[in-house]
Amino acid sequence: MMSDEIILSARGLSKYYAKVKALDNVTLDIRRGEVISLCGENGAGKSTFIKLLTGAETPSSGTIVYEGKEYSSLDPQLSAELGIAAVYQEFSLIPYLTIAENVFYGRELKKGFVLDKKEMSRRVQELFDQMEVDIDVNKRVCDVGVAYKQIVEILKAVARNPKFIILDEPTASLTLKETEIFFNVIRKLKENNCTILFISHRLEEIFEMCDRAAVFMDGRFVTVRDVKTLQMNELISLMVGRELSGEYPTPKYHSDEVILECKHLKNAALKDVSFKLHKGEILGFGGLVGAGRTELARAIFGADPLSSGEIIFNGRKYKPKSPRKALSTGIGLIPEDRKSQGVLLSLTIKENTVYSSLPKYLTCGFIINPNKERSETERYISELKIKTPGIDQLTKNLSGGNQQKVVLARILSTECDVLIFDEPTRGIDVAAKQEIYNLMCKLADSGKSIIMISSEMPELIGMSQRIYVMGYGQITAELSKDQFSQELILEKSALGKAE
Amino acid sequence: MNKNFSLWMLDYGIVLILFLLIGIFSVASSNFFSLSTLTTILRQVSIIGIISVGAAYVILTAGIDLSVGSIACISSLTAALLLKAGWSIPVTIVVTLILATIYGVFSGCLVVFFKMSPLIATLGVMTSLRGAGYLITDGLPVFGFGKGLSAFGRGYFLGIPDPVILMVVIFALGIFILSCTPIGRYVYGVGGNEEASRLSGVSIGGVKIFCYAFCAMLSGIAGLVLLSRTNSGQPAAGVGFEMDAITAVVLGGISLMGGQGKLPLVIIGVLIMGVLSTGMLMCNINDYVQQVVKGLVLIAAVAFSYVSTRLRDKIITKPND
Question: How far is CA A104 from the centre of its chain?
Answer without folding.
Answer: 30
